[in-house]
Known about the structure:
By secondary structure, this protein is α/β, with parallel strands linked by helices. Helices cover 44% and strands 11% of the residues.
Amino acid sequence: MFYLAKNQLADPHIARSVGKHGNWSKRFATLAEASKYPALTTFYQKGVVAASTPIADVEMVALDFETTGLDPSRDSIVSIGLVPMSLSRIRCGGAKHWIIRPETRLHSTSVVVHGITHSAVADAPDFHTVIDNLLAALQGKVVVVHHSLIERCFLDAALRRAVQEGIEFPVIDTMALEARFSRTVWQSLRAALLGRQLNSIRLTDSRTRYHLPYYRQHNALTDALACAELLQAQCATHLTPATPVSAVWS
Length: 250
């Protein structure tokens, strides 16, 4: 998992890739009619839960990517990890992990971060070969990520290059939730006045606040599992099982 720098958060390429829809069910129906790629059409036809559904009743899948860099227009996905989950269970038996041959050059700076080397991807499948399985694993579920700009933008860009269609889907972003839960208006104001940094909302630091164990970072499958556990802890601490999913997704 990479984190975007502050200047990249305002990048117009990223901004236009992240649409927020008040009615995801209606949006999926519209996209299903417009989609041409079969697996993507099926993904949209499967639909999404109603916004009023209690979060305890929502089937989810935690998702994480490792990439060759931070710019989805120039960099690409090098590994994918996902773990099916709900608030009551993390289904490790259904977890999937792919190392794939990136569409763009594997930079030495990213190799240092995630440890996936040129030799590791030399004989790996390319993104085209995992698209259908990936979309099948995501369909009918709400995607859980830590920093939604990465997964949304990189998956959209990868699909546009591969099948000439992008993708839209609702996400529960544990990083955004942690900013909401751990950074009150008073804390933000106090930090600004005193010139102090706010609480870190990176995945490892966020997990520490809930006394979750430390996992080695930057493995897509491990980070997906870490994200799943973090959401469960956040919901148990700050929400109720009856909280509508619309209160936490975007």
